[in-house]
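>> received
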Amino acid sequence: MKQILNAFYFALSYFSIIPVFVKNMEINNDTYKYTLALFPLVGAILASMVIGLNLFLIEFFNPIYASFVCAVVYLALYGFIHTEAIIDVVDGWFAAYSGKDAYKIMKESTIGAIGALYGFSFVLLKVGIITYVLYEKQYALFLIVCVFSRLNLIYLLEYFKFSKDSFLSLAFANGGVFSLKILSLIYLIFAFFIGFNVLILFILSLLSFYFILKVLDKKFGFVNGDCLGFTLEHTELVLLNIGLMIIL
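>> returned
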């Protein structure tokens, strides 16, 4: 139980800006393994906070403005780390055309013009669709997308290679991931209770995540955290747009 709690605290502190007041957190391979299974829970927590904030703000402001603010807050709640990853990946993609080391470009502290423009355009699209979803009060869709986009990690990451020192590699080092995959189906069951077209969204989520990450893997010859952030963000964008299109 202590390992699971440590994994939850680790996931919350690593993938969000929510403060975790825990001292002497024990981190090992099992922590990383359980983190994969708890990452969707972090998505559910962030989505719930955004939905709660939206319900509060629409009592005082125009619903469009309230939804817009909440869309920006959602990106801020995970520290814009995935948005930064998008810029790094785009910079690396175009740098590779000129024979430069894509990995080194991704790790540079500076950003390129193309990466900045793409990142800005993506944020506009992401904030726009979240605003639209919240304005239409499709809260179940938003919650499901935030969960499914992160649920992909535990089901698909074993098909890609990471650095041996990466926590993503360490998560699969000791085995036992298959049992967590079975337990993680509880997220899918929960989604069936609160939403519609859940199976379509889940399959689309898996396909989108795998396809995007596979393209990046083929392009760069490696997959890292930036690639995962890029993939997660684009998967959410695809699911939100198609999900809302199906509903409306």
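>> The chain is about 75% helix and 0% strand.
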